Amino acid sequence: MLKRIFSVFFAVLILSFCVFTPITASAYEVTSFEITAKAGMLVSLDTGEILYQNNIDKKVYPASITKIMTALLMIESDKWNPDAKVTLTKEILDMVLGTGLAVSLLTEGEEFTQLDMLYMVLVSSYGDITYLASTVYGGTVDNFVDMMNSKADQLGLKGTHYSNPVGLHEEETYTTVRDIYTLTKYALQYDIFKTVTSKDRYKVQTVKGTTRTLSTTNFLLDRTTNYYYKPAGGVKTGYTEAAGRCLVSTASLNGYNYMCILMNCPNDLNKRHEFEESRELYRWAFSNFSFKEIAKSNEPVCEIPLEYSLETDFVPLYFKEPFKAILPNDADDSTVVVTTKFNSKTAKAPIKKGDVLGKAEITYAEKVIGTVDLVAGSDIKASGLLIFATAVKNFFTSIYMKLFYGVIAIVVLVFIILFIKLNYAHFKKRRVKYIPYNKRERK
To answer: What is the four-CA torsion angle of 12, 54, 324, 233, rounded to 10 degrees?
Structure first.
């Protein structure tokens, strides 16, 4: 139960982190080589910036990339115990008959550890062992699939749905490149997931004495292939006829960390495009891009007018945290634009150091590469006298007072009109008819 609570908290924490450091669509054009994948991205795991993207929100079929979610639920389960034994059953073996899934060739009754099971799911992508895992941790396959979809909802994978745990092609098993990135980045927070997916070989010793040496399906990790790439670190391959060749991988070099996702590459017998193109994308990124510090958190970016303070009329604003971006090596300061936007026209004292008073949008080559909160750099006290004076001013200039003034004006105007009318009538009554003097004498 505690583990489940932790996993939920962990998910919320990661999602919160993603809210404040979202992946930024600042993709660049790749011209030095061809990319055949129908959907994909190369994204910095350090800053969240996308260097390459194509159809990242388009529906794709995940094939065995599905097993990333399966493995995640294994690790987060209350039943997860790396040393505990599990047994391969006839029921499981019957499930994979005629499916075309890669299988372990282990026999009914073979026992191995849960850790071995995780390696067989992720390294060799065995379908029979994946079905076994779904029954061990979900009770039934259907219940486990419900758990997968529930986790997808929890992680905010809006373009993802599962109908099986192994990645068999079904119309109701689909995802997007963006969702794969979110899921994989979350899973990589677990050291056991990172360790297992970075292995090229692993030996499984069963209770019956059978020894299996697992070989990774990710040729970027395999020194015996032409696609080996030393900086690579994982993660998962996938293939069905409908999904095409798929690969989720990572690579790290000289302090730079990237994830590459390529979906629906051609199934070419002479060339594995998903490995070749992923490797080329990594080389392109490592050779042509570097960190650029746009602003430090100890240097003011701008200032905002301040009210209610006798200390100062303006508040200097700072980046909440230093902002670094992955930019082309030849980028200079003149190509980076910082646009500030305040929460209001003026700030009002008292102000506490760290109060968020606005945001800064950073743009490179007319593309937004990040947004950072602007915060006050120090505490500023409020003046009681200014607050009182402002309150009095606001009171007498408020809409209610204006209405009151209007009513008074109307009353005074009516009073004046009535006064004039009354006095005019009274004056008319007192008027005496004028008789010329000569006329009075004749009488």
So the answer is: 70
* Amino acid in the structure at residue 115: L
CA 277-278-279 angle, to 5 degrees, is 90
Query: pTM for the full model?
Result: 0.78
- Residues 173 and 152 sit within 8 Å (Cβ to Cβ): no
Quote the CA–CA distance of 336 and 368 in Å, as a whole number: 10
DSSP sequence for 199-226: -SEEEEE-TTS-EEEEE-S-TTS-TTST
Distances, alpha carbon 311 to alpha carbons 117, 315, 383, 385, 408, in Å: 66, 10, 9, 13, 40
CA distance 62 to 240: 9
331 CB-contact burial (10 Å; exposed 0-12 / middle 13-18 / buried 19+): middle
**Pick from 227, 336, 335: nearest CA to 282:** 227
- Residues recorded for the chain: 443
DSSP 380: B
Q: Are 117 and 81 in contact (CB under 8 A)?
A: no
Question: How many distinct helices (H) and strands (E) make up the chain?
Answer: 12, 17
| Distance in angstroms (rounded) separating the CA atoms of residues 239 and 329 | 36
The 3-class secondary structure across 105-146, one letter per residue, is: CCCCCCEEEHHHHHHHHHCCCCHHHHHHHHHHHHCCHHHHHH
Rounded Cα distance, 80 and 78, in Å: 6
- Give the strand pairing for 256-265 and 367-376: unpaired
Residue 246 Cα distances to 102, 223, 280, 284, angstroms: 16, 20, 16, 20
Closest CA to 18 of 126, 178, 139, 224: 178
pLDDT digits (tens, 9 = 90+) for 192-242: 999 999 999 999 987 777 788 999 999 999 999 999 999 999 899 999 999
pLDDT digits (tens, 9 = 90+) for 245-288: 999 999 999 999 999 999 999 999 899 999 999 999 999 999 99
**Residue 58: C-alpha distances to residues 180, 200, 226 (Å):** 12, 31, 31
Q: Which residues contact 218 (CB under 8 A, 6 or more apart)?
A: 197, 200, 232, 234, 235, 236, 237, 247, 249, 275
81, 238, 256, 299, 369 from 212: Cα distances, Å: 21, 21, 35, 59, 47
